[in-house]
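Instructor's aside before we start: the two examples that follow are unrelated to each other. I chose them only because their records fit on one page, so don't look for a connection. First example below.
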Amino acid sequence: MHSDQPWNAGYVCGHLKAGIVMRPWEKSRETLPAKDIQEVIKRAMDSDEGIAARSAAKALAEDVRAAVANGGSSWADMEEFVARITK
């Protein structure tokens, strides 16, 4: 992973609980064995942790869609930004 990816992964998996960590950052330079990948995929598909992560990801997606929709918070912020820079 590069630059902001470790921070994003930590935020999404740790704070938002919308993902499952494949491996800790300290081991990012190591090749991840297929067995480990298989284990994480099984956890994502068959465990309570995976169900919770998928539910959190779905809720996050809905929040993002609402924010960028016409009248949403991100939409309004962009409108305000454009208004300020075009004065």
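Example two begins here.
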Amino acid sequence: MSGRRFHIPRELLVVLIVCAAVGLFGSWWVDQRWGARSSPPSPEEIKAEERADIRDGTDVLRSLENAAVKVVEKVGPAVVRIETIEKAVINDFFVGQIVQEREGIGSGVIIDEDGHIITNNHVISDASEIMVYLPERRDPYRGRVVGTDPFTDLAVVRISGGNLPTAPLGDSDKLRVGQFVIAIGNPYGFESSVTLGLVSALGRGLLLDPKYNLQIEGVIQTDASINPGNSGGPLLNLEGEVVGINTAIIQNAQGIGFAIPINTARKIAEELIAHGKILRLGILGGTVDEVFAARYERETGNKLPVRSGVFIVEVVPNEPAAAAGLQPGDLITAAGGEQIRSMEELVAKVKEVGHGGELNIDFFRGEERYVTTAHL
């Protein structure tokens, strides 16, 4: 009788190999965790291990807590409450002129020993009186507006005083999504309120003024609670550095707030301190090319006189373009005696002329050509 070869099915062989590997790994894991021993861990040992895990988690939370406390102690004294009074004169038919006052409140942060404070433009715009309160001082300082920029909703106010606390400015380009941040401000008048959250997103676009379509790019989104009165206060990293200026919330939404990156705020503040204003023509518009011209003519039924330049969509009040008489619908073709083919070229020409300079602007209004002068 011939011998019969014993055959193991391939599928069964694979299962046996996997089970053997799992068994070897399990033995190694038990040996690593509990050491070489002949009996399984006791309930007391398991509970001790669980307590150690809890201690590790508690240590992490305590480290975060200590970091937040240190940040508040370090920067809190430099976060100010800003109270404003806006006066409006109303003509009443029976009693004549009536002066009405409206009060406002916001926050700010002192950035240097000269008393310069960064805040939001909407906090102090149209204010006739500005009072600045420090956390550890009962009497207010009188604030003076150094300059404002509605394009970024930033402003600089100055107070005069000695030994003023200041907040260090960080680098918002180093922020990462998921990073812890702290907001300090005066929501609803509750002084020096502190909230903790995360950087929810970076590079958001934020519409500042729907009327003029003013939008700022690169905004920080955070779930740190930001409420009315927080505007102008600092957003801080765990090193106690200002990484943003809190500016807005979405109404009826929880956990969605926005802050202007400090790298943007720093540049704006430096220019406002040096010149009292930001060098801009004060228009919103776009570059005219063949695509723009074709779309414009198709949608309006009007023909453009030229097919290159800068088309003005909006003119911002109290800016050089408005003072020069430019209007929405005008088409800029030259500036300073040089042809303008794009918005970038126009911005570069404005910077070339600089603060205090004059810029001659050639433009079309309809089919008529005009020249005006903008005082920058």
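The chain is about 25% helix and 35% strand.
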